[in-house]
Each structure stands twice: as structure tokens, then as C-alpha cells.
Batch of 3 targets.
Target 1
Amino acid sequence: MTDDKVLTMADGPSIEVSLVIDAAAAELWPLLTDIGLPARFSDEFQQAEWLDGATDAVLGARFQGTNENKYIGRWQVTCTVVECVPERAFAWAVGDTDAPSASWRFTLEPVDGGTRLSQSARLGPGPSGLTEAIERKPDREHDIIAGRLNALSENMRANLDGIAEIVG
């Protein structure tokens, strides 16, 4: 994941986890766009609720996510759906869509034996709890980012495994 490269926020650090699932994209799509589903599998993401009267994943829809971890405590973020291509890709920006604190994406790709489901996250370029931690300890930026990417990777893997179990 991190190779020997020194990670900085300026690099737009990212992580992606993939899993081939024995299911069609049409079967997986409703699970990906259920914004609350990952809370069943994550030790950080707690819940999500649609905002502004939205009830489903459509381009521009907003939702509020609630997260909690031992380093930051509990916090809420407002997210905006920035990509919604049925059975192909679902993505959202956290905070400001022009400079999000993070960007998240699911992609579906048909493969022999089912569908390759990938979940990815890109940190920054906007401010977040991560950037605050780096400002407090700038000499530890690489370690802070690597730790965050590892935590995200573990939760993303649990999420994909949980989705595979549901359709299993």
C-alpha cells in the first residue's frame, strides 16, 4: 500500500480494496447505494441519513454520515453523491464537493465468475480531522496517513466481505 514512498496529503493519498463476488452487478447495486449498510460492518462508520428529502442515491443527493473512533471521538459529515451510474459506479464527496475532505467510490466490473466490486477512498484535498492531526505533528505526517489508510482498508475489506455474505 505505502511502498517506500513518503506519503503526504499533497499526494492525495488513496486506498482501494476489491473482491470478486459471485453475483451480478444488478444484485449488488441496491446494496452499494444503501448508504446505511456499511455501518453493519465498520468499526468506525455508525450510520447515515438522507438529507433534503432525498430517499435514494441520485446525482446531487446529500446525506449525513456519523462516524466514531478512538482517536477523534464522534463526528458527523455531510456528503454529496457525485457519481451515480447504475450497476457501474457510485461515489460521494465528503464536505465541500470542490475540495472534499475525502472522496469515496464503489465500482462494479463484470468478470468471469461474477462481479469485481471495488471500494476506494481518497483523502483530501480539503481539511479534516486527519489534517488537524498532521498540523499538530507535522513530522509524523507519513505515519498518520499510513495509519489512516490501514484503518480505512480494514473497514473497506469488512464492508466488501459483508456484502458478499449478504448475496452469498
Target 2
Amino acid sequence: MRWLASALEISLILGMLPLAGCDSDTGPADVKFGRDVCEMCGMIISDPRFVTEVRLGDRSLHKFDDVGDAVNWLSAGCKVADDIKEFWVMDSANGKTWLDARRAFYRHAETPMNYGFGAVATQTPETVTFAEMREQVLRPQNACKSPRAADGGHYHHSNTGH
């Protein structure tokens, strides 16, 4: 009888292990620097100041080494604002604080993939909005040709949240 109780306890513990390892389906996830790979370019994510994450409506999480790679990946996949549940960028000023990418501001910076923009929380005369940054980093070969979105198929989301 004792062995049955022990077996049940072990089964319960083992059954709960997968739950303990699951990422939340909201908010940014931990990044394993030096191990996680950028969804767009396939390079290892190594600089915490420029890491970016996108969570789609299906709750899948996608990691990038540069916000420019995320913008181009979204456009190349013809994603529209409704497809995107969350879009996170690391504050390039400290490399520790996640910001909503669509509400963040962007300043010129030397970035892993040379798109040239690092996110910051506060607007200054030297910063641009998400929409302005997006326009500058979007590469024509990644522009979506699908008529899904009202603006010709390109991923778009205003910085104001409207």
C-alpha cells in the first residue's frame, strides 16, 4: 500500500513538471543570451540592449536580435496588427527594461543587424516614433504583397495605440 502512495506522489509531481516550465502566454519571456536565435536572420541573440520579442495571436513567441529584424519579419510574413498580440523591445539605455515596441521611441544606435535604432522609454528631440522607425528599417524585399491590410498589406500599427 505504501508503494502505491509513493507511486501516486511521483506521478503527480511528474505531471506538474511540464506546467512549471511553460512560458506565460503574455508578456516578454526570458532570453537565453548566447543560445536563443533570431527568428529573421538566424544569428544568436547576444546583446540585451536590442533584443525584441513578438507574440502573435496564436500565443507563439518569436525572438529577434534587432527591432529591424522583427519589423521585416512581420512584413515578410504579411502580418497585420490584428495578428500581433504583443510587441516588446528592450530599453537600449539599460538593457534590462522591456518596453511596448509600438509606444517606445527610437534613437540612432549601432545595432546587431545595423538597422540603427535602439528603443528608449522617453521621447527627446533625437528620437523618432515606432511608425517613423518602421518606415526607415523596412526593406523593400520584405514588403508584404498581400491585400490583407488596409494600407496595402504591410504590417502597421500607430504609435498612439489607435
Target 3
Amino acid sequence: MMVAIEDTIDIDRVYKYLQCVEAGAINVFIGTVRNGTKGKQVKKLVFEAYEKMALKQMKRIAEDALSKWTLHKLVMIHSTGEKMPGEAVVAVGVSSAHRDVSFQACRFLIDELKGSVPIWKKEFYNDGSIWVNAHP
């Protein structure tokens, strides 16, 4: 299991970690910064985390997924710091014997992460900036 908060997400590293000969399925979700929200152009986002608590919650979610599905490997990474449109900010993924399990587990990971991990973002627009929960 790879659970981390990092400055950047190396998507190749995520995929290589999930690979194993027992897996018939690898499912990865990559969340990126989009260039607009609520009708405003996004210039950049800045992510902050209460790292100790965030990692504890991410590990709990990962362990929950491992108890619900038969998974070979699991990844949950969220980045912090300044991110520009197009950059990856979150990656979750699993490898399993079959695709249905991998889809279910991957969806569970991102939904639970978004719903309960203490991470915030500051959105910078052309007309100002605001702090919001990164995962409402």
C-alpha cells in the first residue's frame, strides 16, 4: 500500500507501483486542476493539508478498501502546494485480478478521500481568490 502527501504526483511511478503479474486489472483515477469553475477562469490552486491527520485518514480508507475487496496493490496520493491548470493533484489506484473489483475499489477510494480527508485549496481567479474545502 502506498499512501502519501507529496509536492507532485509522478503518474508513471503510480502505474509502475500497481503493476504485478497477478493483476488482470489496474484502475487509476487522476484528478487534475481544471481551468474554470463556477463560471470563473482559474489561474491556479494552492493546496494545504493537515498532513498528520490526512495521512491517518487516508490509511484508514485504504485499509477499509483492502478489507472489502481482494486487491494486489493500492495507491492514494494527494499533492500540496501551488498547482496550475492541467496538473495532477490526486491519484488513487488499485490492481486486482478482475476489472469489476478494480473499478469499485478505485471509485470507493476517491469518493472517501474527497469526503473525509482534511485538505483545503485556495482558488485564484482573475478577479480574486478564496479558500474552499478541497473536497466538498
